[in-house]
Amino acid sequence: PGGRMLETITHLPAGRALQGLVDLFAELTRCETRESFDPWREIERLSREATPRGIEVDLTLHDGPTGHTGSIVGLTLENLSIGSIFAAAFDDMAARYERCALRLDPSRSWSRTVLSGGLPRRLTALRQAIERRLADRPLRAPESAEAALEGLARFARDRLDRPTTAGESRSLSP
Fold it and tell me: H/E element holding 170?
């Protein structure tokens, strides 16, 4: 009714998929030392210093709108590093965000992009990868982990005359 709908795509490979990679690499560190540490700080530094150099990461590590199995290809002894793998993973996330944005609006008529979740707020290298893909639109990382979702709820409440039901929304899964 009235053609007013907020279109979204959910369950993209993002924080959970990246956490799988963190767990993989952090497992070795936990074996060496029993001290607790924040692996994201080191990943941030290493990924900013690295380039993927032939590595392709597919972060589809759980069922979602872009598939259900992921991969890391192109690994060599020369590029096998946490920084290079995560730089490639950030590039994959950014490319997926761009593809999904174009699925929602092929004419690119949106005026800005708001990211959700804690990682875009914390990881400059991830934000920069997304900015490279969506360079022609302002990008805002959330001030808190739930800021973008809170904003979407306010947007929907302010724009819709009545609550919508799940049946009224369009499914964007393949």
Answer: none
Which pTM value belongs to this model? 0.71
* Residue linked to tokens 């005026």: 111
Residue with tokens 């959910």: 10
Is 12 strand, coil or helix?
Answer: coil
**Are the C-beta atoms of residues 61 and 140 closer than 8 Å to each other?**
no
What confidence tens digit (pLDDT) does each residue in 111-138 have?
888 787 788 888 989 988 998 898 767 7
> E-assigned strands of 8-114?
56-58, 71-73, 113-114
Single-letter amino acid, residue 147: A
Which residues lie closer than 8 Å to 37 by C-beta, 6 or more apart?
29
Query: Is-contact 65 172, C-beta < 8 A?
Result: yes
